[in-house]
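Saturday, quiet lab. Running sequence design on the structure tokens for the scaffold JK sent over.
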């Protein structure tokens, strides 16, 4: 505890003390006001006015200094503390000298800062936690003083947390509540009676903080685990700087425990106590400074106590901290990689040291458990300490650099955790992992065994990544460590995504996802080259973060890395191919019409063999599932499954099986079987009513729905069938009505008005002049509509089709882009493909997603007399790819470059109009 907090803080301030808060000047001004103002209410108002002026000036000076030195978090946090101290001191003087002068018998009163304020670290809008310390029961005078102080501080818009207690109260309550105990651990005298404050200091050290700290440690560890579960165990892309994994609270938990045990006042003292090595302390300070700087800028930019780095704030904070675009990456991505690297370092430090402290205070096991529990046999060179693998002799361990890999294999083999001392030893000696080791066949064997031999390698890979071993062994991996992809699609950093994909592969191999992933599971049961698959997943995104296409660059990197991992030349070739084309199956399934024979034929030609198809299918499933917890769904599963099965059949029996006539005959046969009660004449009329594309483009369930709608249809009827398609997690909306121009866009508008997300759409014209359009739609959560919502859905669609609601007008109020999404740059790319389909031109529009986009694009195409046969919609967070299969009014493709340019111009204008609506 310090008796003169101002003197302690001054040398570290961001500006001159008098520029931040001139205590003498402010107090003199208040005293002058008190001399001329007798009314208590008026004096309070004048005091607030004087202090608010000083507060505004001080905050401006701190913000100015922080903007000039955006990484100087220490000066920023101390400066806000100094400013707050000054105001608290002035408020106490006003309360005790002018508002409620102390009587001769007035008890002592001391004002103590606790928690973060007590620590002397404040962000611009941090809470001000005060302890009003009293020698005994609170007197009427003390009560009036405390009340007056609080009202003045609240009038200054400070968020004040407060308690009024005796020293005995503090000890008793802190013994029962670890939150109070933690707050008192960092108490600091601010003003008032110094003797009482000194007595508190002595008593707390003697009665509260003199034990082993075992219960305190357990409470802090439990609190940390609970916080991580709430905030997200992995490094999520919109992190909470204060409470998230690797955030400030983790650093503070580490210091609290160390302070409790060692009684240190400053983090630098932890080196002398042996808690930190010098290099670890430097890492600690760098992370602490960076995180505090981020938090400070967050508060200043939002003008409130904001702790979460949302997407829009990431851009603003990156700009405030002067990050710049670099090598094809946005400044915000460079900033967030720095953030996640510091967060990873925090996680690394806190895990090692809190676990070590936990080891020091662990409960001894019951005797019977020690006798009867079977411990795994461990290899020479290791010992078991508190159920963790530890090193028997560090020097012997380091004499063979291969041990830096072996320790992870031993942990996986035994299923045990690695002791924190062993992790520290590994991290401190990464320089031993050099080219000689990387090219050592034994090192290659150990690494491949880590991937292939011991079940799920996820835990080992994550620990190797966090300790820097993975990047040391594969230097090409280092650039993607903690690399954030600035979009709403990916839930994890690139390195974490990579580990997640491998974890999913291991789960499929262990038959844990057989029901959910029947195709991928059956492929692995039949057998594939596991070495190729695991290495391909490890390297599939290794080219990200550069200006080049990451698939092409990744393939080039894979060609160099795979031989170093011990793969043979033919295996290297396959890994290179998989990395180069790891998005091919996903793109084909989600962005193309897989009912079109040309799609499957082109995909089969690219894949060439069933062996490659098997590997690519499993890799694709793992890649999509590794993007985020909710990315994989039944819709994607159905698409991937259908593309796989059609391609497998084509590769095994020949591509001629894909022709339209074969498919049409099979579809008609299936319809007849599904409608056994229909008269032959009616069936014959139905099968003769449609053109060939209709038969190949829809499942028999949709053919049945349309057959029932068309049977005995009246002229000018508008018929709708809404049906949950449970296999695809979507609702199938079938529409039948007389054909007329622009109907596809009107249907798209009607669906947009009810908030439906269209994931697939197909439009066909019958030979007798009816439109048969099928849309697959999902609600805002990406699910099929509940049955109870279908009547309202139908009602709104019918109103729009009757012209009672004009979609273009009604969508104006619904097109708004959320604030946190405006930071994303999604350039628009429009391409024309005349080779991907035998009878249609494929127009692919890659742009920012928003409500009503499909309607705007379809309306623009309708305005140019374009016939839309179907539309395939693939959404990736804030980005969407709308693919249209089209032909002109004469049934021809758009070969003319001039016509393509005209259509592209119309589409871009429609997008810009929608953007203007969304931003207005």
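Result came back. Writing it out in full:
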């Amino acid at each position: 505890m310090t008796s003169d907090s101002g003197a302690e803080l001054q040398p570290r301030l961001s500006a001159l003390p008098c520029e931040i808060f001139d205590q003498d000047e402010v107090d003199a001004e208040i005293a002058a006001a008190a001399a001329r103002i007798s009314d208590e209410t008026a004096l309070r108002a004048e005091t607030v006015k004087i202090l608010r002026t000083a507060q505004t000036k001080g905050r401006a000076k701190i913000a100015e200094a922080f903007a000039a030195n955006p990484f100087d978090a220490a000066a920023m946090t101390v400066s806000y503390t100094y400013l707050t101290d000054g105001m608290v001191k002035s408020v106490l003087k006003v309360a005790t000298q002018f508002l409620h002068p102390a009587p001769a018998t007035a008890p002592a009163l001391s004002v103590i800062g606790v928690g973060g304020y007590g620590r002397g670290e404040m962000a611009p809008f941090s809470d001000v936690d005060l302890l009003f310390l009293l020698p005994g029961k609170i007197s009427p005078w003390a009560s009036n003083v405390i009340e007056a102080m609080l009202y003045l501080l609240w009038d200054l818009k400070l968020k004040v947390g407060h308690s009024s207690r005796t020293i005995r109260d503090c000890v008793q309550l802190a013994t029962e509540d670890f939150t109070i105990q933690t707050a008192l651990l960092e108490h600091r005298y601010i003003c008032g009676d110094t003797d009482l404050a000194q007595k508190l200091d002595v008593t707390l050290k003697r009665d509260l903080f003199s034990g082993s700290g075992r219960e305190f440690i357990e409470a802090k560890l439990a609190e940390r685990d609970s916080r991580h579960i709430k905030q997200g165990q992995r490094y999520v892309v919109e992190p909470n700087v204060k409470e998230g994994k690797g955030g400030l609270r983790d650093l503070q938990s580490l210091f609290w425990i160390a302070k409790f045990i060692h009684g240190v006042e400053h983090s630098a003292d932890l080196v002398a106590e042996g808690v930190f090595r010098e290099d670890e302390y430097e890492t600690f300070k760098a992370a602490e400074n960076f995180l505090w700087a981020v938090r400070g800028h967050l508060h200043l930019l939002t003008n409130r106590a904001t702790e979460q780095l949302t997407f829009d704030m990431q851009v603003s904070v990156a700009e405030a901290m002067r990050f710049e675009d670099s090598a094809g990456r946005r400044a915000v991505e460079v900033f967030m990689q720095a953030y996640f690297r510091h967060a990873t370092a925090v996680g690394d430090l806190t895990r090692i040291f809190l676990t070590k402290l936990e080891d020091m205070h662990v409960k001894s096991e019951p005797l019977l458990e020690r006798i009867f529990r079977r411990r795994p046999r461990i290899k020479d060179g290791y010992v078991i300490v508190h159920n963790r693998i530890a090193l028997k002799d560090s020097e012997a361990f380091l004499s063979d650099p291969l041990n830096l890999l072996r320790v992870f294999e031993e942990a996986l083999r035994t299923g045990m955790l690695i002791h924190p001392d062993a992790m520290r030893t590994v991290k401190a000696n990464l320089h031993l992992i050099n080219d000689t080791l990387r090219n050592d066949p034994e090192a290659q064997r150990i690494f491949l065994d880590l991937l292939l031999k011991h079940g799920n390698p996820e835990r080992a890979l994550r620990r190797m990544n966090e300790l820097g071993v993975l990047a040391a062994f594969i230097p090409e991996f280092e650039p993607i460590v903690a690399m954030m992809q600035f979009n709403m699609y990916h839930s994890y950093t690139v390195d974490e995504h990579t580990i997640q994909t491998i974890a999913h592969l291991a789960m499929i191999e262990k038959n844990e996802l057989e029901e959910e992933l029947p195709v991928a599971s059956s492929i692995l049961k039949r057998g594939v080259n596991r070495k190729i698959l695991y290495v391909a997943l490890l390297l599939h995104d290794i080219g990200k973060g550069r200006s080049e296409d990451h698939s092409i660059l990744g393939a080039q990197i894979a060609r160099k890395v795979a031989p170093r991992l011990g793969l043979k030349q033919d295996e290297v070739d396959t890994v290179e191919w998989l990395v180069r084309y790891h998005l091919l199956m996903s793109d084909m399934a989600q962005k193309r019409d897989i009912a079109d024979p040309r799609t499957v034929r082109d995909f089969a030609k690219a894949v060439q063999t069933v062996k490659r198809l098997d590997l690519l299918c499993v890799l694709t499933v793992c890649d999509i599932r590794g993007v985020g917890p909710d990315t994989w769904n039944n819709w994607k599963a159905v698409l991937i499954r259908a593309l796989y099965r059609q391609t497998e059949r084509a590769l095994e029996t020949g591509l001629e099986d894909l022709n339209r006539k074969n498919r049409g005959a099979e579809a008609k046969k299936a319809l007849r079987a599904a409608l056994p009660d229909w008269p032959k004449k009616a069936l014959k009329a139905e099968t003769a009513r449609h053109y060939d594309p209709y038969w190949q483009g829809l499942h028999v369930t949709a053919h049945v729905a349309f057959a029932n709608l068309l049977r005995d249809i009246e002229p000018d009827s508008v018929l709708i069938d809404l049906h949950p398609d449970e296999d695809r997690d979507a609702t199938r909306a079938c529409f039948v009505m007389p054909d007329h121009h622009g109907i596809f866009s009107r249907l798209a508008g009607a669906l947009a008005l009810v908030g439906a997300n269209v994931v697939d759409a197909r439009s066909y014209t019958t030979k007798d002049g009816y439109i048969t359009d099928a849309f697959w739609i999902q609600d805002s959560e990406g699910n099929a509509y509940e049955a109870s919502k279908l009547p309202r859905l139908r009602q709104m669609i019918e109103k729009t089709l009757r012209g009672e609601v004009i979609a273009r007008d009604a969508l104006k109020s619904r097109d708004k882009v959320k604030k946190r999404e405006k930071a994303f740059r999604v350039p628009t790319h429009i391409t024309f493909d005349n080779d991907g389909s035998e009878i249609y031109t494929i127009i692919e529009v890659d742009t920012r997603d928003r409500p009503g986009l499909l309607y705007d694009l379809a309306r623009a195409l309708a305005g140019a007399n374009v016939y839309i046969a179907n539309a395939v919609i693939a959404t990736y967070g804030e980005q969407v790819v709308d693919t249209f299969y089209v032909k002109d009014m004469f049934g021809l493709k758009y070969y003319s470059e001039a016509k393509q340019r005209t259509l592209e111009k119309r589409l871009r204008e429609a997008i810009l109009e929608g953007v203007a609506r969304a931003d207005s």
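Notes for JK: Residues 676-919 form one domain. The mean pLDDT is 88. Ask whether to fix the surface positions before the next round.
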